Amino acid sequence: MPNRTTEQIVADLLLATKESGPSGISPTSLLKKANVSHPRLRRLTAALVGAGLMLKAQAGARHAFVITAKGRHYLELHVEYHNMVESFGLEL
Predict the structure, then answer these.
(1) DSSP states of 32-84
(2) Can you list the domains of the chain with their CATH numbers?
(3) Rounded to whole angstroms, how far apart are CA atoms 8 and 5?
(4) Could you give the angle at the alpha carbon of 43 between the alpha carbons of 9 and 8, nearest 5°?
(5) What does the pLDDT profile of the chain (92 residues) look like in tens digits?
(6) Considering only CA atoms, which of 43, 47, 66 is closest in space to residue 56?
């Protein structure tokens, strides 16, 4: 299996966050579902929060990430783009 691009990892993070529902996903669950290292997860989630694609929520001692409307829109465009590329028989 070829290495994933950062774009693919970002999409995996957003998809896992979206699938977790409105209560969000814990960093540990996100790490496992997206299959990334802890340092990379920290860098990418900080970038995604900074870009407004996800929110970092805290309830007591529990941290969770929640996808925003902007993150959902990004994910939809990502899927559309990859479907279009595949329809031309190309691979990214």
Answers:
(1) HHHT--HHHHHHHHHHHHHTTSEEEEEETTEEEEEE-HHHHHHHHHHHHHHHH
(2) 6-87 (1.10.10.10)
(3) 5
(4) 10
(5) 578 899 999 999 999 999 999 889 999 999 999 999 999 999 999 999 999 999 999 877 889 999 999 999 999 999 999 999 999 998 77
(6) 66
- How far is Cα 47 from Cα 62, in angstroms, rounded to an integer? 20
Q: Which amino acid is at 77?
A: L
In whole angstroms, give the CA distance from residue 88 to residue 29: 35
The torsion of the CA quartet 87, 89, 34, 30, rounded to 10 degrees, works out to -10
Q: What is the pTM of this model?
A: 0.90
- Rounded to whole angstroms, how far apart are CA atoms 58 and 7? 26
Tokens for 78, please give them: 């990502």
Task: Give the phi and the psi of residue 65 in degrees, each rounded to 5.
Answer: -110, 135
The C-alpha atoms of residue 1 and residue 91 are separated, in whole angstroms, by: 14
